[in-house]
Amino acid sequence: MKKILPIIFLLFYTLNANTVNGIAVIVNDDPITLYDIKEDMKKRDVDENSSVSYLIDKLLFEQLVKENSISVDIFEIEDYIKNLADSNGMDVYSFKSIIKQKYPDYSKFEEDVKDSVTRQKLIKKLVRGQLAIATDEDLKLYYEKNIQKFQTAEYFDVTQYSSTNRELLIEKVSNPMKVINGIQSNSTRISSKDIHAQLQYVLTTTDVNSFTPIFVTNNQFVTLYIIKKEGSVALNFEAVKNKIFGEIMEQRERVFLENQFEKQKLKADIKVIR
Q: Which of these, 24, 37, 47, 221, could form a disulfide with 166 (CB 3.0-4.6 Å)?
């Protein structure tokens, strides 16, 4: 009996491994395994059909990238980040500083940027003049139709904490009730019309009863605790013009790629194994 049990266990393990690692779908000779599907379902919290459809699209995209010899280097990633900073009215250093505080793993943000740059380069190669570039009229129309997306508070009631030592502010954010020597604080009301785009972005994207990311101003480290947001006012068109252009072109690119994928699916050799 003792000899039989290990054999049964080994047989069960082997069958289970084959099920987990078995090929479920083959797309143009590239496999999608049952393990891939299960992991994606878990990661994105979706059902099996959604996962299979997503993984097929992902594989078709990767095949298109490889077929068109698309690659992305660190300089292109940095250029993209600079454009993101510009569209939010910020300098690159400040923008990166905020992103690093919002992303627990900054490399994940860089991976997302790389995917975006790859997509743009692929579209540029596939489009060959088919994708219409957004005009000023397109931007203004989008702004007017989606004005609710560009609203911000008219006033921000905040407590400002400042110090020459960044570590002290990090400690304050972690322990808001703690009194820490070396930190100056004062409460104030900030009018939206009186602040520059960089601070506007920081305040707008920070929730009430939360600290803003730590930033530098007047040679000091500063964080603002948002007590209340009051009123509502639309951001100036010129202040969000670049952001709108990016959103419109991203939408057009997405539609174009979706159409490309549908064409690719019709041409692709997709075999469902199990």
A: 221
